[in-house]
Specification:
Mean pLDDT: 78
Order of helices and strands: EEHEHEHEEEEHEEEE
Structural class: alpha+beta
Number of helices: 4
Oligomer: single chain
Radius of gyration: 16 Å
Low-confidence stretches: 1-6
Shape: globular
Largest sheet: 6 strands, antiparallel
Amino acid sequence: MKYATDVKPDAGAIRAILIHTDLQRVVETWIQPELDAYTKTIGCQRIDFAYPQFLSERGETVVVDDEAMFSTKRPAICWTLGAPCFQPYFGSGLIVGTDDATGETASTSFDLEEVRAALRFATPQMQINGKTVYQSVPGDDFLIWDEEAMRFRKVRR
């Protein structure tokens, strides 16, 4: 995969921000706004479009790895964008913009530092009653994944 920011974009390419879960990295990339490019860049076969408040306030979205979210072999690391945000995303994601006039995917208006400031990677810390408890950084609240509600819930210390 090309992660360099100095790569010249191909004609029709859009600027996107890749959230790479395995590497816990956030990088700028240029891609074609096509299904094949999304799945190849994220590293999966099935994608979904998610609209966390942090992005949707500016009319943007994140293309997420739909396989990782519903896999029984879920990756150990998940991430959230913005605060408060109790919707975790498992697997990598790709932030893209939307052209308001056409509804088509467009370049993101976010810069890397805005995303890095809002992004929290969370790793499993312990098991409580057979459920995995996540924490993004020491001192943060512990969060437990609620399968029925499909969201995180805070765990009292």
